[in-house]
Design brief:
Nucleotidyltransferase, domain 5; alpha/beta
């Protein structure tokens, strides 16, 4: 099974494709690709949203994931930041929805809990654990690491024998 996972942001949207490898003892996972949709700070919001949708769509067409996992809405102090983040999420979700992917949403604290073991982990801890869990040769940048963490959280939530309090909520 392949999952597209997305850490949405207007300027740096992290994405990853993770595949579950069937094994006789326990499930194994590998990152097929991961990266960041980078939008220059001078690009207007509308241009950023189009770029996010197009690049995520390209990744979907190339890797053919079966599901999509995305980071849920986070608490922000500024309504402007919340609206901008929501727009980036929407662009990503439209790309996934257009390709017929079912979309699952995970709260940031839940992602950190699943990967590091505590919901208040910092970005460096998440990146370190992702490198170890996926046996990567280099530590991914924070946006890539977050996207990879979202994908692993989705797999963990889908496993019946994995102790998770609840399944991810489908959107």
């Amino acid at each position: 099974m392949r999952v597209l996972s997305i850490d949405p942001a207007l300027r740096n949207t992290g994405y990853a494709i993770i595949e579950r490898i069937a094994s006789s003892r326990s499930p194994q996972y590998r990152a097929l690709t991961y990266g960041v949709v980078k939008n220059h700070r001078t690009l207007r919001q509308s241009g950023c949203l189009v770029a996010i949708r197009e690049q995520i769509s390209d990744v979907i067409r190339e890797y053919q994931p079966e599901q999509c996992a995305i980071e849920g809405v986070i608490f922000v102090q500024s309504y402007k930041t919340a609206i901008t983040l929501g727009a980036a999420r929407a662009a990503s979700m439209i790309a996934a929805g257009e390709q017929g992917l079912e979309i699952f949403e995970y709260a940031p604290r839940r992602i950190k809990q699943a990967i590091v073991g505590r919901g208040a982990a910092d970005k460096q801890q998440v990146a370190f654990m992702i490198r170890a869990l996926l046996k990567l040769t280099q530590t991914p940048n924070p946006d890539e690491a977050d996207a990879l963490a979202i994908g692993l959280t989705h797999f963990y939530a889908m496993e019946a024998n994995r102790p998770m309090s609840d399944q991810g909520s489908a959107i």
